[in-house]
């Protein structure tokens, strides 16, 4: 598996030639220029994960692309005339021979009055776990974890405890678009220090790594 991280939670997964883009939000734009995309995988409807103009731009360049998401985002896409395969909690689909399995029902709480949208974590190819905006433990073996490290809904101690519970062999940071470059080395140090048994990978925006 090759992973290109464009920033925040937008990534390109290349799994044996099948190319899947995750969470094309309003923080990144590089995904809008991609060609040869097979699927777009969206965890929830917040703008930093789901930007409808970005989805439209990607579909214009990749008209045969399949969107895979949960029911809430699927309903928003349907209003725009965009079909999707809906995969929610405890559901799965096999896309071009790749298993995509959904876990969890709600976004982590920000504040009670803010409400909670549907959030689905996805285990891709029985290997890569992408939780979106919640620390839902899937209860399955995870080789590579995309770990959220910053946001209004979380704190670092929760991220570290989540990683310890999931016990991935490898992990890297996501949901980090709000962390300024001078502060990122400290975040990296914290994860390396408190998760010494896990191989931690540092990405520059736009960089590709093989897992």
Count of DSSP strands: 14
Rg over C-alpha atoms, rounded to the nearest angstrom: 16 Å
Low-confidence stretches: none
What CATH architecture would you give?
4-Layer Sandwich
> So, the CATH homologous superfamily?
Ribonuclease Z/Hydroxyacylglutathione hydrolase-like
- Which percent range describes the beta-strand content? 25-35%
Tell me the strand order in the biggest sheet. Answer: 6-5-4-3-2-1-14
* CATH class term: Alpha Beta
Summed up, the helix count is: 4
The ordered string of helix (H) and strand (E) elements is EEEEHEHEEEEEEHEHEE
Describe the largest sheet: 7 strands, mixed
Helix content: 10-25%
State the distance separating the first and last CA atoms.
Answer: 5 Å
- CATH-derived topology: Metallo-beta-lactamase, Chain A
Average the pLDDT over all residues and give the rounded result: 97
Which structural class matches the secondary elements? alpha/beta
Overall domain count: 1
Shape: globular
Short overview:
With 211 residues, the protein is of the alpha/beta class.
């Amino acid at each position: 598996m090759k992973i290109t991280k464009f920033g925040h939670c937008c990534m390109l997964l290349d799994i044996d030639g099948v190319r899947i883009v995750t969470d094309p939000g309003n923080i990144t734009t590089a995904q809008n220029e991609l060609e040869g995309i097979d699927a777009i995988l969206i965890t929830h409807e917040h703008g930093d994960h789901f930007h409808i103009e970005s989805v439209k731009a990607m579909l214009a360049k990749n008209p045969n692309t399949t969107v895979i998401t949960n029911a809430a985002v699927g309903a928003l896409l349907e209003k725009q005339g965009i079909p999707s395969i809906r995969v929610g909690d405890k559901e799965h689909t096999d896309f071009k021979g790749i298993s995509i399995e959904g876990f969890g029902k709600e976004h982590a709480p920000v504040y009670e009055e803010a409400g909670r949208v549907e959030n689905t974590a996805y285990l891709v190819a029985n290997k890569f776990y992408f939780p979106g905006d919640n620390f839902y433990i899937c209860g399955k073996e995870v080789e590579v974890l995309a770990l959220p490290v910053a946001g209004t809904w979380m704190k670092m101690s929760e991220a570290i405890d989540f990683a310890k519970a999931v016990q991935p062999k490898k992990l890297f940071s996501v949901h980090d678009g709000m962390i300024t470059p001078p502060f990122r080395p400290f975040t990296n140090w914290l994860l390396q220090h408190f998760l010494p048994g896990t191989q931690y990978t540092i990405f520059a925006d736009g960089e590709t790594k093989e897992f």
